[in-house]
């Protein structure tokens, strides 16, 4: 084990934060999540990889209840996912989500994008929300863009704003669903670096990505999915150098 992964592992493992037990989900006849058991501990960084259509996005979307499940249990920090209302809004704030398409509010400035949820969901006062938004925008390297509209920013900058917006809610866990897939190549690293820093700061993260460099350096664990199942889970070094299943070997031979 490398020093870096030893340090990562020392930070992880102080209690279960996200727990999925025997989760099943269908879209019509398609069994998109099959008997998913997955536990993420506080401070852990889990990278989810697998072929297109294997259920990675659906997995993320069930964790903040953008999708319902057919059976099984999901809990965050010891509490079952709420079904509706204010409790659901709070859950969504506790589970920060960053998508492939940045999903910023186009008619709001960058600053307003990062203030809005704090005011509406967390009931933070306006000045405190602005102070926090500015600090977070600085942290992700776009502090000077605060008064612009999203369309005036590059893709990499917009995605960093989306990360700041999620962080503004003080989430317990951050979900990233292919956050760099829609970016021009030269912008990928600026987003991955923000995510790396977040991981080093101890954020619990579930990251769907095909960026294997990120997986190797930031992940405590790689979860490999295929056809709606978790086929294999391992430490990144082990997974990349010695995948056990034929599905994983085949997948890696195509992307590496
Ligand atoms: P991945 O993110 O791994 O590419 P997804 O979770 O997006 O996979 O999709 C898994 C499967 O479920 C795919 O076959 C996809 O076409 C299907 N699917 C996803 N969302 C829906 C939906 N809302 N309705 C019907 N089928 C869907
Ligand atoms: Mg997907």
Automatic annotation (TrEMBL):
SMART domains: AAA (SM00382). Its main location: membrane. GO terms for cellular component: plasma membrane. It is a peripheral membrane protein. It is an enzyme of class 7 (translocase). One of its GO terms (molecular function) is ATP binding. It is found in: Cell membrane. Keywords: Amino-acid transport, ATP-binding, Cell membrane, Membrane, Nucleotide-binding, Transport. Its EC number is 7.4.2.1. Residues 18-252 form the ABC transporter domain. It catalyses: a polar amino acid(out) + ATP + H2O = a polar amino acid(in) + ADP + phosphate + H(+). Pfam families: ABC_tran. Belongs to the ABC transporter superfamily. This is ABC-type polar-amino-acid transporter. The lineage of its organism: Bacteria, Bacillati, Actinomycetota, Actinomycetes, Kitasatosporales.
